[in-house]
Design goal:
By secondary structure, the protein is α+β, with helices and mostly antiparallel strands. The chain has one domain: Spore Coat Polysaccharide Biosynthesis Protein SpsA, Chain A (Alpha-Beta Complex), CATH 3.90.550. About 35% of the residues lie in helices and about 15% in strands. The protein is built from six helices and seven strands; from the N terminus they run ααβαβββββααβα. Helix 4 (about 115-125) crosses helix 5 (about 135-140).
Length: about 180
């Protein structure tokens, strides 16, 4: 709690309000806990769910995601990956049969994923388990069309040791 207070004082304006909610065993449980902690959200209120391991966002990007969500009900940032992709023809890990996928139709999904709080809570209520890897998958399973918006190439997800080297480069170069 002391760490949070230090961060809040350093980076946030006094009028900006934050509510801390307990984490869950899964991402989905943590998000649901956060949504339930919001007192009396307005029906059109937007929640932006962001990974703490994606630190290289900026204000303009966040505003664009929120504006898209306000206009279309949701916004999920993405980028077109530069790599080529292959789809494995078998689920068996020891088999190598595969075929090429058109990379112009592939998107790498990022956060923040932005949705109306009321729609998220309805989608959560419909689910028997909370095993989704992201909110776009949850919403899609409840019949919601997902609106993709432009992501940021530097909005990397830091999950492996090599990612820390990329993050260091981004920090040293003003991202």
């Amino acid at each position: 709690m002391a760490s949070w207070e230090k961060i809040r004082q350093q980076y946030l304006k006094a009028e900006e309000k934050f509510i801390l909610a307990p984490g869950g065993r899964t991402r989905s449980e943590s998000v649901l806990n956060g949504l339930k902690a919001i007192p009396n959200p307005k029906p059109d209120c937007i929640a932006a769910i962001h990974d703490g391991v994606r630190p290289f966002v900026n204000r303009n990007f966040l505003q664009e995601c929120l504006l898209t969500a306000q206009q279309h009900g949701n916004a999920v940032p993405c980028i077109t990956p530069p790599e080529s992709f292959r789809y494995m023809d078998s689920e068996r890990s020891n088999e190598t049969a595969s075929h090429a996928i058109d990379r112009q139709r592939i998107r790498s999904i990022q956060t923040p994923q932005c949705f109306r709080i009321s729609a998220l809570l309805k989608a959560f209520a419909k689910q028997e388990s909370l095993s989704f890897t992201d909110e776009a998958s949850l919403m899609e399973s409840s019949g919601t069309d997902i609106r993709l918006c432009e992501g940021l190439p530097q909005n990397i997800k830091i999950t492996r040791p090599f990612d820390l080297q990329i993050a260091r480069f981004l920090l040293e170069n003003g991202y």
